[in-house]
Write a structure and sequence with these properties.
By secondary structure, the protein is of the alpha+beta class. The chain has a domain of about 200 residues. Helix content is about 30%, strand content about 35%. A 12-stranded mixed β-sheet has the order 7-8-9-10-11-1-2-3-4-5-6-12. A hairpin with a 2-residue loop joins strand 2 and strand 3. The longest helix has 21 residues. The chain is globular and about 70 Å long.
Amino acid sequence: MRSTLYKTTVFLGASLIAGCASKPPEVIDNSQLLRAAKVTTKFSSTGFKGFLATEGTQDSFTFPDMRVTKRTNKYTGSIMSKFGGAENTNDIIRMDKGLEWQVDNKRKQYYECAIGQCKGIGQNVSAAFSDEQAGEFEEGDDDLPPGCVITVEDQRFDVSKTGEKREINGFPAEQYLIDWRYIARDDVGGKLENIFEITIWTTPQTAAMTEALNVQDQFDVKYTKALDDGYPDAFTKAVPRDALKMLEQFFLNSLSDSDLSKLKGMMAKNIEIEGFPISSKTKWDARNTTCAAPKEPETDEEKGRLNTSSIKGLLGSVAKQVVKQEVDKKAEEKAREIALAPIFVYIVDVTAVEMGEVRESQLNVPANYKLITRK
């Protein structure tokens, strides 16, 4: 018995030693620690109608001409949460190099873009759907049915300070609301409304936050100037950059030049948003009863296909695709739930603003990562 026990013990010990020997050595980052403005946030996004919904946290380290945002997030939707897994990414902006990098630490790969050309969370949606966005109201839109003419009737962008105050994540905050609407009609009275409701809570700058926010401001001035997209400070301050990129890709870029110019003019005339935004909620809703509304597919093949040719096709087909894959609810109930749900909701909460430290190596892509594409 003792001999058998001894042999077993020796075998297990040898196995453990072999296992330890096969483990790759831990890489220690000894690069220089750099002092930076650090902002810690938590965020969540519904994706489109619940498709590609995510939530996570991020730490942003900012210098006057550089920023690295270290983000961890996971899918939360009923389908993707089962297969998507957690993601660990770095977004690096190097004003000194004129480049941005989106780095996937899990897959050890990255995208390289010119300043402002990386799409943020919109990149994930594009990969799942398509890079095509057909203008919804432009003349000559081949996607509209014959004889269907959509005319922009009204657009508004109003900012108001509500007077409401509360404490959020330990910060004293007061509320601003943005009511942004884009309304169009067809020639028989059908109506299309795109409604954006943006709620912002801001906090006064304190002495403890001053250094960090001064560095943030220095970077933001340079970054905004490099983007040269014409959006006023009141808008870019209120809408998180990732949410703005999503709205640009799937709505703003479909507007005519004159409508977009009019919108930016209205934004510029509104009241200034005072204080530092520590919580924001961007909600996009839409209702479409015009001749441009997506029609029911006629064949079984069409019913199972995801239509990405335009935003109106996308909104119709995403609902049908999710309905098809949901088995725990009746299709009619799920379809109604999706039809009534907002197109997109993005929420950001700041939990800390301070000066922190980051390793110099984090401001570059690791040498062993694979470049996927340059944009």
